[in-house]
Amino acid sequence: MKVDLTVNGSAMSADVEPRTLLVHLIRDDLDLTGTNVGCDTSSCGACTVHVNGESVKSCTMFAVQAQGLEITTIEGMAADDGTLHPMQEAFRQCHGLQCGYCTPGMVMAATSLLKQNPSPSEAEVREGLEGNLCRCTGYHNIVKSVMSAAGGA
Amino acid sequence: MIPAAFDYVTADSADAAIAALTEHGDEAKLLAGGHSLIPLMKFRLATPSVLIDIGRLSDLSYIKEDGDQVAVGAMTTHRAIENSDVLKAQLPMLAHVAGQVGDPSVRHRGTLGGSIAHGDPASDLPAALLALGGSVVVKGPNGERTIAADDFFTGFLETALAPDELMTELRFPKMPDAKWSYQKFNRRAQDWAIVGVAAVTNPMNTSVALVNMGAMPLRAEAVEAALQGGASAADAAAKAGDGMSPPTDLNADANYRNALAQTLVARALAETGA
Amino acid sequence: MTIGTPMLRKEDPKLLTGEGKFVDDIHVSGELWMGMVRSPMAHAKILSVDVSEALKMPGVHSAYSGADLNGMGLWAAPLPCAWPVTEDMVNPPHFPVAAEYARHVGEIVAVVLADSRYGAADAAEAVIVDFEQLPAVASLDEAVADSKMAHSDLSTNKAYHWALEPDNAAVEAAFANAAHTVTGNFVQQRMIPAAMEPRGVLAVPSPHGGELTLYSASQVPHLLKVLIAATTGLPENKLRVIAPAVGGGFGAKLNVNPDELLAATLSNKLAKPVRWTETRSEAAFSTHQGRGQNQRIELAADADGKVTGCRVHLDADMGAYMMLITPGVPLLGSFLYTGVYDIPAFGFTCDGHFTNLTPTDAYRGAGRPEASYAIERAMDMLAAEMGMDPAELRRRNYIAGGDHFENFTVSSTLAFDSGHYGPNLDKALEMADYDGLRAEQKKRRDAGDAKQLGIGMVTYVEICGLAPSRALGGLNFNSGGWEHATVRMLPTGKVEVVSGSTPHGQGHETSWSQIIATKFGMDPNDVEVLHSDTALSPLGLDTYGSRSLSVGGVAIAMAADKVIEKARLMAAHMFEAAPGDVEYENGSFSVKGTPAKSVHIAELGFGAFLAHDLPDGMEPNLQEQVSFDPPNFAFPFGTHVAVVEIDEGTGNVELLDYIAVDDCGNQVNPLIVEGQVHGGIVQGVGQALFEAAAYDEDGNCQNPSFLDYLVPSPMEMPNIKTDYTYTPSTSNILGVKGVGEAGTIGSAAAVMNAVVDGLSPHGVKDMKMPATPQRVWNAIQGVTV
Q1: Which residues of C touch A15 (CB under 8 A)?
Q2: Do A62 and B31 touch (CB under 8 A)?
Q3: Residue A141 within any structural domain of the chain
Q4: Domain tally, chain A
Q5: pTM beyond 0.95, yes or no
């Protein structure tokens, strides 16, 4: 089936089987490999992207469901000149990543969180990221990153 | 984990969805937010040969006051319910419980109708529906009917929804002044409840529903009856496990679930002042 | 940004923008996807494998049973075990695809190749295998009981008996004369390592034949290259192994796995790229697990609480087969059971046993968290037995009385490089407000609050810097422990560092750049680090055992020093001075007494490239290499304090506060050190409260996915309060010790000590990990489970 959608501001289309998961459309067909797959049960959030501006786990959506929708992936976050998005910059400043595998999903979930709640408490940041797992950082510096991004916003 | 192949049909109206269900019969499944169905399909525990996508039925996504009731469209996302000013004013527990489902990204896609239709005993929202005395509006080839929450859940992942029916709306009596409590106990925040309790106290009565205490979402009838009969909250809570056949899994055996239910019902009743 | 400064990581911009390339991100045209057909039974005879239906499916290229592959002559040897811990260790042959018997759920019994990810999954489902189910050894306890055999052709499940018994008479005497003894029986449950990036592999044959490039999500590309050659007969000099961006390892990516061998051999055979990516739920079977030990530790103490003897026996679960270092993991811990304490008499024995479960192997800390757990829980048991504060008991037993020491030989025979335990404990207790916590605990107990406090501490030591090669030889470990580095001053003044260490999240590029920046007085951004590719970095022994900095980083520092010495000779030649009169500071050489006339090392690099005017006999180019074999291990230590709140109505344990004061010697990048401490702590907390691979009586893993295997989320963790003491190592010129595993080594015991402390009014003396709400609730009711 043909799917037409907007990805990181550009119109794109792909011919996929109906069962193709959105994350595989993004990774395998559109070659935007920043969005990762970390589990198979909608648990880890490594595949988090924005669908029409809200964080969604792209492993739990069929590509055909994204017909006509606007998708933003980690590749669409930095400015055209390469300047990091404030959330990306906050993760860098606060050492909010180690291996970097959960990081794109964390950044996408965190930006969605701040859009809905621009000044979260530390507890609200933790709650906002409850669907994103990290095995390296112990979350301390991730929470610090998001708090820092919120403060600077 | 890759789902098995299927044919994909989009429905652009409720009637089109019902027609498609009628045409494809048992082979077909409705796809709303997909957050109950897609995980099962990835493990090939569900292998429908046709998926009817009702995700585009935006006319089934609404929250509106209707006399002494609030009507919520079946395709309304958890996120919309969590944030609804109408619900925060009229049915604050429903808004709260929607905010307890999964995690924020899940709540952006998952829908109230999907969660209720799946009928998972471990889900949060069916218990809220029961405790709030809501009802389910469904539409099929022979028209529309309304099913009381108490009659809706019929067994493990089984409901009164017929294979050719589409859930269109959930209705809840307004109760802005009710005291309520939702106690969700789990080990990790994003997970299903090991045991959960939804309690609503109105001047005349208290209703209590339990999560994950049996094959389906359940009312704590023994607790409610004890309260009705004038028992203290503590004595009533001690009956939380009566008549229940809670499951045993990695997190909890039946005995511990019974104990949890008693503790959580006691805490819920303390909050509602029952 | 020199050594000791919190430089922001050079790795981050790529990873933050999605440009980091993990194995599954790399594609080549014509690639075939492997789909694995896995045994649904823990122990079964394979009666038949029918791939005919799979072969008919669209996009399917080929399909093979284990017998098919054996017939193709792909294997020169079984999967390797590098650590035959005893002469008579039993090591049943283990091939990538089982042909006759499946010995654990998820063992590969057939492989299909298809032209897409989805097609391979479909084809694997279509393979029909007939099994005859055999009795399964579904737990370590069943293995020890030895009434069923995990390998039907063996007469016992016991694989080996290993002992470290320097002086049994002394141990006997200590226990005979003891005023107090305690015995702890602890279970180190099986852990699923769960690096966020699932493992994956891509093998690409050269279009002209003969050469093969293997991309793998591996911690050990160098070891992999050697061992693929040894296992498959592919010529080592035609193999190139690349570990691209690797999404965490924690020990789980330091093996030689069936999928890697299949990709290498099938791509070579078929002359097509072959790939595979693990799914999360598959990882419970396709990647080794950690821990899996039953421990018995006994302590003898005199009337003052001075511990006089320590005796330990382990039963260790090998799983179904010996993987790369499976049998050696308990040995890595064996030397640490006396902890930071001066315990004069010590004895240790270990039996390894086969089960019909996923093989075990290294997991963050590998043997040492287990050891630390045992001694630190036992110290708390002794303190409780004696009615003594656990901090006081620890103080009384510290090596050197808690004062600074160097090169102290403990009764387990190792010489600790340096330590200074007293001030480290003081700092942690002060940060935690230990006295205030005890007061709050008493208040809640007196009031009968529904939520009670538990306070736990550990004072751990660990062994880092694996390893002096000679020590490994003494333990029969078939590898060296050195690390290799090359430092190359390029003609334009930039520096290339080639390192044999292989990062997967540790920030090596940053730390190595800081070492060079310090040595050469230059901007760390002018340093490029080449690693993780055997063509760029041909020599190396990779990353595990907290060895990267204290072996690999030290090798880099030493190579830089050699570069400086060569450059000094050039500078002397240029200044027409004696080399001894040439001073070096911050990148510049000058002659003693005439500092105005100087030359920068980068200029000398250009000069060495031109080679127009080198001293007689000097080779062109300014580059030096070092293979550093450490003379000793390094022994970091620290004090952790955990504060838990126990909900007595539900049994829930909430980690309220965590204080860590670690001492890893000198620090190169404090930011990175801090991150390692945080992450390590949470993995230990995971073991204490959340995680356990659960098996049913038939040997099925009941929680292979992240739905049921509870990797903690941000909601379960508090912020972590950290500080440090600094006791330089005497084992290397940087005075560094290692910190990758330290957090994990301290935290499980700290949390469990807190849980048991919190439950002590109920008469609870011990609790199994993980301390689930159900277990805790049962303990409060007086039910032992």
Answers
A1: none
A2: yes
A3: yes
A4: 2
A5: yes
